[in-house]
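Inverse folding, one chain.
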């Protein structure tokens, strides 16, 4: 019988999402070798790196971290947090250190060794690499510019070695800057000689918390158990969730541009031969993943992210009479027409703008209620949900604009939208459920502020104007000119809001690989150790990460993300015997950013029969997908078959860099409507064949 050799708890998908205390307590029953949580990412846009601020409310982050520290102190196991403060820059990390000191003081943590690992990099070092032509692009854009780099805040995404070094030096609590999400979980396993292929794959499943479950949610815990036979078993401590072979396989696709290849600082995770299996009704596992120590640019390639300020931003939201919609210039974002995608809706589609607006006696009250409403709306899981990466699209980063009204009260507004027909069917129930959740969990938020949700479609359109400039006077003038373009042709309707001062605009200035081994090993990711006595942390020393090779050197398989598992163009023979709507054939149809410059689509079918029928129909070849999405074929990175979970994955170059000035969907979570609308021709030859999953 296999022997348990390691057990790790993932607290939630990101610190601040929250998780039931009962789930963590259930997860702690039995052996626990580490408690780990990812603190953030770049998904929400460059603002948080550029400003050094946090995406989540500070009290939510503090509460999540407090539970982790309390558990770690009781058990005596390592507690690891990466990408601190959302973006992982020095200011983000320092903010999290302040939270940690408060928590340590409140819990009476004494005599603890804390490691702080920084990931920010001097722009001048990056500029030298740029001038030498040594930065490697990760896809389309952003275009590099020396002046822009000099004005940027830049971080590197650390791998396993800084974390392993801190653990080997006896640190119980680790606060890391920008981190590869998977490295947070893989590091301690690799330190304990667990196979790297298994360790990295386990890390990928765990980094989103219970999102890999059925039903999935980033606001809950997930446990992984590693056995000496080379397998890992995942179990949700919350009895309302379960892990299945299907849910684990499907989650292995999430946020990645290829279904079987994932690229990390130390090498490549290869899942071509991975086996997914169920252990019982609530637990499932993996085995046979490989980790490859490949030729350059891996290992010792660190992904760099840079953010720079573009200027101040003004926003206006203008309500439009439906009779006047055709008069609005085509380039203006209008919910009900082109608020979610640049391409306007056609006669067969509906676009819904969801404008959340709150009012409170204080700015804090208005902002809190608006934040809660939008957080629950985007993540709420409802029966029959297909777009599991997010229910709505945000055009702004940050997504919320706060302001003061003429009567002295404060307001907050969040524009968003969707084209998802399944969401439309459930919208009324979703709104009611979201309000009930807030009433149950945050009753003070509803007592201290009021809200209204405006539904904007072709029968009640709302235009969103956004202007950015570094000069305040010029900004005001330019934004007024934008307002004038609408006022010249229509009369703004009641409820319109003009000249709101939104948070400053930032842009990604860098998303490239650093390949200078000397800089990586001798400059980046310095580790500082502290002796913690409550809030009093005394520096005890520092060291450099210790590096060693990881992974197979003799792997002979395919590691080319443009060819492995690519769907071939094989037109079917004969005429179809009928057709089925793709919505009826798939359990998941989702889109999501895979970095700032790629967008990926996952179609997970309800059965092997439906999967094989879709493949046989030849709809999902690269050229056909380009036509469906209205793209040149060269912008389709690949369209791939995934037998392990009856899925098709499509990856494209993002039409724009995430959170650009013309952004409509920062997270890329609502770009799948053209695929949702497909009807798949069915051929008799496909009906006799089915996946073995």
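Residues assigned per position:
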């Amino acid at each position: 019988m296999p022997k348990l050799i390691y057990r790790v708890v993932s607290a939630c998908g990101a610190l601040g999402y929250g998780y039931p205390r009962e789930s963590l307590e259930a997860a702690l029953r039995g052996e626990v070798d580490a408690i780990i949580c990812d603190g953030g990412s770049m998904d929400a846009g460059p603002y948080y790196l550029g400003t050094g601020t946090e995406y989540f409310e500070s009290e939510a982050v503090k509460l999540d971290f407090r539970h982790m520290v309390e558990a770690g102190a009781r058990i005596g196991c390592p507690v690891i947090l990466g990408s601190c403060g959302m973006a992982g820059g020095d200011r983000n990390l320092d903010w999290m250190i302040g939270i940690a000191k408060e928590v340590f003081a409140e819990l009476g943590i004494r005599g603890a060794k804390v490691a702080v690992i920084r990931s920010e990099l001097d722009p001048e070092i990056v500029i030298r690499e740029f001038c030498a032509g040594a930065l490697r692009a990760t896809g389309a854009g952003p275009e590099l510019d020396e002046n822009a780099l000099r004005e940027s805040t830049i971080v590197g995404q650390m791998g396993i070695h800084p974390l392993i070094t801190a653990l080997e030096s006896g640190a119980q609590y680790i606060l890391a800057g920008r981190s590869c999400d998977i490295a947070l979980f893989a590091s301690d396993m690799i330190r304990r000689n667990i196979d790297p292929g298994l360790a990295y794959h386990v890390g990928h499943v765990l980094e989103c918390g219970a999102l890999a479950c059925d039903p999935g949610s980033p606001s809950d815990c997930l446990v992984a158990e590693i056995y000496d036979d080379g397998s890992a078993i995942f179990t949700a401590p919350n009895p309302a969730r379960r892990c299945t072979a299907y849910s684990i396989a499907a989650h292995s696709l999430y946020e990645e541009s290829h279904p079987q290849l994932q690229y990390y600082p130390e090498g490549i995770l290869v899942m071509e031969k991975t086996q997914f299996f169920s252990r019982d009704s609530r637990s499932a596992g993996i085995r046979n993943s490989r980790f490859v120590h490949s030729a350059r640019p891996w290992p010792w390639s660190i992904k760099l992210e840079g953010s720079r300020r573009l200027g101040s931003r003004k926003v206006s939201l203008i309500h439009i009479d439906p009779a006047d919609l055709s008069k609005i210039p085509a380039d203006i974002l209008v919910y009900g027409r082109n608020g979610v995608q640049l391409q306007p809706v056609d006669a067969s589609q509906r676009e819904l703008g969801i404008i959340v607006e709150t009012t409170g006696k204080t700015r804090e009250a208005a902002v809190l209620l608006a934040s809660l409403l939008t957080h629950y709306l985007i993540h709420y899981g409802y029966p029959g949900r297909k777009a599991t990466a997010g229910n709505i699209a945000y055009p702004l980063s940050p997504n919320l604009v706060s302001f003061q009204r003429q009567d002295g009260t404060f307001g907050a507004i969040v524009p968003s939208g969707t084209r998802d027909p399944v969401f439309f069917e459930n919208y009324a129930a979703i709104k009611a459920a979201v309000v009930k959740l807030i009433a149950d969990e945050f009753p003070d938020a509803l007592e201290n502020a009021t809200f209204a949700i405006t539904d904007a479609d072709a029968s009640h359109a709302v235009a969103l104007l956004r202007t950015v400039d570094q000069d305040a006077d010029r900004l005001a003038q330019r934004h007024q000119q934008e307002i004038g373009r609408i006022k010249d042709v229509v009369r703004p309707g009641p409820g319109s809001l003009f000249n709101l001062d939104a948070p400053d605009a930032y842009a990604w200035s860098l998303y490239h690989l650093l390949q200078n081994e000397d800089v990586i090993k001798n400059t980046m990711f310095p580790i500082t150790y502290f002796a913690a006595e409550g809030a009093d942390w005394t520096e005890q020393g520092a060291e450099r990460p210790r590096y060693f090779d990881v992974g197979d050197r003799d792997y002979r398989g395919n590691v080319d993300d443009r060819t492995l598992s690519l769907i071939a163009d094989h037109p079917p023979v004969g005429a179809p015997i009928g057709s089925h709507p793709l919505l009826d054939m798939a359990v998941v149809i989702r889109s999501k950013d895979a970095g700032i410059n790629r967008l990926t689509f996952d179609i997970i079918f309800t059965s092997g029969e439906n999967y094989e029928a879709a493949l046989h129909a030849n709809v999902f070849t690269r050229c056909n997908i380009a036509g469906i999405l209205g793209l040149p074929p060269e912008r389709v990175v690949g369209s791939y078959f995934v037998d392990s979970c009856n899925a098709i994955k499509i990856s494209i170059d993002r039409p724009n860099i995430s959170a650009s000035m013309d952004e409509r969907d920062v997270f890329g979570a609502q770009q799948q409507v053209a695929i949702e609308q497909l009807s798949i021709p069915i051929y008799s030859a496909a009906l006799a064949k089915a996946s073995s999953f």
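Residues 578-686 form one domain. The first strand starts at residue 4 and ends at 10.
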